[in-house]
Amino acid sequence: MEISLVLSVLFIAQLSSAYPVSLRLEDVFISVKTSGKFHKTRLTPILETWFQTAPEQTWFFTDSEDPELNLRTGGHLINTGCPADHSRTALSCKMEAELTEFLKSEKSWFCHVDDDNYLNARSLVKILAKYTPEKDWYLGKVSIPQPLEILDRLVLPTQRKVRFWFATGGAGFCLSRSMAEKMRPWIDNGQFQKLADEIRLPDDVTVGYISEVLLQVPLEQVPQFHSHLEPLRLVSHPETEITLSYSQYEDSGEMNLVELDGGNDIKENILNDETMFYAVHCKLYPGSCSTL
Question: Which residues carry out catalysis?
């Protein structure tokens, strides 16, 4: 399933021509959070599909060295040195590394996705073009029906509760340059990890806390982000979405996947892929079908 360099160049040319002049793909920093144990299983479908559309803009943040993967990503693999588990400490450590790397760049937008997300870069840029990076924007999608209510531990012993929304990291979220710069005091020099520990919240919730509680910038919900926490079979037009995911229902063992009408151009082995990344990519970029 290796895609040639020629096809990669064609993808990028096709994407660039579709973007508004006001925003380029080059203006976006795409950050993928992963772990060493998922380099083969989760990153292979990404590298062979949507990564080909944004290789220069995409960085992978992991917890172990992998020379082969670093080569395949063009040197875009960053070993954060964070723990390899799924603890709050590990998650906040990686998120801090992601945000820190973005702040070093000159990009206009920071966009985080997980290693079980398919990212439609063309749709991402089209939607980001509606917002200006010079203003404070926190874009994403919630996964809970009501705002989260917690005891604000930063003001203890004062007993004060706060309510706020946060964009689930499993669907992905974006921060404008202006917003990320205002968040810098809670990012630099280990401050993000320190804050996550103090308020006892994971990485994506901590981002929401900084935005909505500390900076008073509300989450702008963007329905085109999709996580594995929702029934993905209801997504019928992947060409208009930003992210898609996959998972397995614990009770039934069935896969939670996007359902596509394959047509004659999508091969059976692609449709049977448990991530559906290849089928989605084939639908979005028909010229790639023969090489997947």
Answer: 204
